Amino acid sequence: TYVVTENCIACKYMDCVEVCPVDCFYEGENTLVIHPDECIDCGVCEPECPADAIRPDTEPEMDKWVEFNRKYAERWPVIVAQGTPPENAAEMDGVPDKLTTLFS
Ligand code: SF4
Ligand code: F3S
């Protein structure tokens, strides 16, 4: 599976949503997640993310992100069309410790 990771938080560009063939993105307040059981591993969303936040779970240290994506994919509504990203998305790109300080 592919997963959405920390740098999506407060950037939430949503370009990823437009390209997913199986609509497996779910929307929270300021980030998206992928349902790991629905993702077909096509990989097309990874290069589309301007914040470089999408990763294959084959990379090191991804277990906690797979868990995070699964947990919230089961609570949040599916998103099938790109909305408007936050105005300061570009400024928030690369800000450290987003999960502890900015996740909502
Ligand atoms: Fe959707 Fe493919 Fe990305 Fe999985 S890898 S979330 S199926 S676009
Ligand atoms: Fe997030 Fe990147 Fe999608 S910032 S909403 S994973 S395009």
Automatic annotation (TrEMBL):
Domain 4Fe-4S ferredoxin-type: 1-29, 30-59
Entry-linked Gene3D superfamilies: 3.30.70.20
Record keyword Iron-sulfur present: yes
Cofactor(s) named in the record: [3Fe-4S] cluster; [4Fe-4S] cluster
InterPro entries: 4Fe4S_Fe-S-bd, 4Fe4S_Fe_S_CS, 7Fe_ferredoxin, Fd_C, FdxA, RnfB_subfamily
UniProt keyword annotations, A-Z: 3Fe-4S, 4Fe-4S, Electron transport, Iron, Iron-sulfur, Metal-binding, Repeat, Transport
GO molecular function (one): metal ion binding
A UniProt-annotated Pfam family: Fer4
Record's function text: Ferredoxins are iron-sulfur proteins that transfer electrons in a wide variety of metabolic reactions.
Protein name as it appears in the record: Ferredoxin
The organism's taxonomic lineage, starting at the top: Bacteria, Pseudomonadati, Pseudomonadota, Alphaproteobacteria, Rhodobacterales
